[in-house]
């Protein structure tokens, strides 16, 4: 156990000789928990002595030699307010829910004005817009939307796909990466750069910055924080990350250790358990002592996370990578975690091991991203979500064309060309794909054709930082 630091920038504490068991974001101890927590909107506290990040840091329990820190309002944005509200079942304007006994967290909530700043989170996550349209916003928070007049608040920071907007805010964190003439141009530029984390709008100037916090109050301005790249992951993406950086789930981050953003993506998508189906689909591990050709170093991980049961939840389908405890929703939303504890086999997503991807949920998906890496993977811009995670064959040229018609009969074509030599996807390269997924949707008729030219499939790969 590490010694408790006397102070941490942006965090309240230390609270000595206490811990909060469970609610961990990471499973492998972080070597720099304060920075790792600060980089994650949903990390509301940490135990630096154990290297663990917490999505729900209180209540405390006695733990001699251990200590806890709480995230302060300077490290909050609208998504942090959303995490606090969801984790403690707060109903803004009505009840603090499970947050009621915790004075320090309530002070942070008030200091950042989460009652109103959560409005954009409700819009960005659940699609609420006003005028009676609550999207998928849970009923308990529709009262909050109305009582705080969320419609004009959310409208003051127009929705930007792939970003959480925080109203009446500004930041000068990190370094400037220049500016753009329009918000959409700024988004396209920021999404194509791994180093860009934030867009600011103060003074009508759409600035790009490498830092996300601290955020300060600035009436009429907005801060747009880039969402995680994990929304574009599937089990094969986890496999690529593990193989390229020699990660041993549950034991070591290997060569991934120095790279905070990639570790954040790894944890966000729960690669520790979702790689189970990748181990099964690629190496033939099934359990009961049968590891197939799974390398010895990962057999420990297979056993530790109970991969046999997880893999059985998504039966093997030749030619596909299965992603457990996942669903694909309509409207451009990314992979979403299902409730595995309630029903292990409730939802699976299968992604073609070639280029076309097909899901077995009754929905269609499109998502955008540009992959750029020197130390991280940029989250949204011009990549179809599940196609981005699919393997690109070495020494092969793959062309795929897909026609998709859904609800509004939208047609899109996508061509992905890859002539891989020794590198995967070139950093800062823009890959255009506006649909590579066919799905079964209630009111959708989808037809897809694809031509795959030559080449043997290899392991999916990610760019090295």
Q: Describe it for me?
A:
By secondary structure, the protein is an alpha+beta fold. It folds into three domains: 11-109, Hepatocyte Growth Factor (3-Layer(bba) Sandwich); 156-227, Hepatocyte Growth Factor, CATH 3.50.4.10; 230-438, no CATH class. 25% of the residues lie in helices and 16% in strands. It is built from 13 helices and 15 strands. Strands 5-9-7-8-6 form a five-stranded antiparallel beta sheet. Strands 1-4-2-3 form a four-stranded antiparallel beta sheet. A hairpin with an 8-residue loop joins β11 and β12 (336-337). α2 (78-88) packs across α4 (114-126) and α8 packs across α10 (271-283). The longest helix has 13 residues, at 114-126.
Sheet-strand content, in percent, reads 15-25%
Q: What would the average pLDDT be, to the nearest integer?
A: 75
Q: Major beta sheet, specifics?
A: 5 strands, antiparallel
Number of strands: 15
Shape: globular
| Separation of the first and last Cα atoms | 30 Å
Classify the helix fraction into a percent range. 10-25%
The sequence of SSEs as H and E is EHEEEHHHHHEEHEEEHHHHHEEEEEHE
SS class: alpha+beta
Number of domains: 3
Uncertain spans, ≥5 residues at pLDDT below 50?
329-346, 352-465
Quickly count the helices. Answer: 13
Strand adjacency order, main sheet: 5-9-7-8-6
**Radius of gyration computed on alpha carbons:** 22 Å
Keywords: Membrane, Transmembrane, Transmembrane helix
Transmembrane segments: 360-381, 387-411, 423-456
């Amino acid at each position: 156990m590490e010694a408790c630091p006397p102070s941490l920038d942006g965090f309240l504490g230390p609270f000595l000789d206490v811990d909060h068991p469970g609610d961990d974001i990471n499973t492998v101890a972080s070597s720099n928990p304060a920075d790792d927590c600060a980089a994650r909107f949903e990390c509301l506290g940490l135990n630096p002595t154990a290297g663990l990040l917490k999505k729900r840091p209180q209540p405390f329990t006695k733990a001699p030699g251990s200590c806890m820190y709480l995230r302060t309002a300077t490290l909050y944005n609208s998504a942090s307010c959303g995490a606090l509200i969801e984790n403690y079942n707060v109903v803004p304007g009505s009840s603090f829910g499970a947050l009621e006994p915790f004075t320090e967290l309530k002070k942070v909530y008030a200091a950042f004005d989460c009652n109103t700043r959560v409005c954009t989170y409700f819009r960005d996550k659940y699609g609420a817009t006003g005028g009676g349209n609550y999207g998928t916003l849970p009923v308990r928070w529709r009262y909050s939307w109305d009582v705080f007049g969320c419609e004009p608040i959310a409208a003051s920071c127009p929705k930007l796909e792939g970003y959480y907007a925080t109203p009446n805010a500004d930041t000068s964190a990190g370094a400037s990466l220049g500016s753009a003439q329009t918000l959409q141009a700024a988004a396209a530029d920021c999404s194509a750069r791994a180093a860009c984390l934030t867009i600011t709008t103060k003074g009508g100037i759409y600035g790009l910055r490498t830092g996300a916090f601290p955020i300060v109050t600035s009436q009429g301005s907005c801060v747009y924080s880039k969402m995680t790249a994990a929304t574009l992951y599937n089990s094969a993406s986890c496999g690529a990350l593990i193989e390229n950086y020699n990660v041993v789930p549950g034991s070591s981050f290997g060569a991934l250790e120095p790279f905070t953003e990639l570790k954040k993506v790894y944890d966000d998508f729960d690669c520790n358990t979702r790689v189970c189906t990748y181990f099964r689909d690629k190496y033939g591990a099934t359990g009961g002592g049968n590891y197939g050709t799974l390398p010895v170093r990962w057999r420990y991980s297979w056993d530790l996370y109970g991969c046999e049961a997880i893999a059985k939840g998504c039966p093997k389908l030749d030619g596909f990578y299965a992603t457990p405890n996942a669903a694909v929703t309509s409207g451009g939303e990314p992979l979403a975690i299902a409730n595995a504890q309630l029903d292990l086999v409730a939802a699976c997503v299968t992604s073609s091991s070639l280029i076309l991807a097909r899901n077995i949920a009754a929905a269609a998906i499109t998502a955008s991203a540009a992959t750029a890496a020197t130390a991280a993977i940029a989250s949204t811009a011009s990549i179809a979500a599940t196609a981005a995670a699919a393997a690109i064959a070495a020494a092969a040229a793959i062309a795929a064309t897909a026609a998709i018609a859904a609800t509004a009969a939208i047609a899109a074509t996508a061509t992905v060309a890859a002539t891989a030599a020794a590198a995967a996807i070139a950093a800062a390269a823009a890959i255009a794909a506006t649909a590579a997924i066919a799905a079964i949707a209630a009111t959708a008729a989808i037809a897809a054709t694809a031509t795959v030219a030559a080449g043997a499939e290899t392991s999916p790969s990610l760019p090295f930082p």
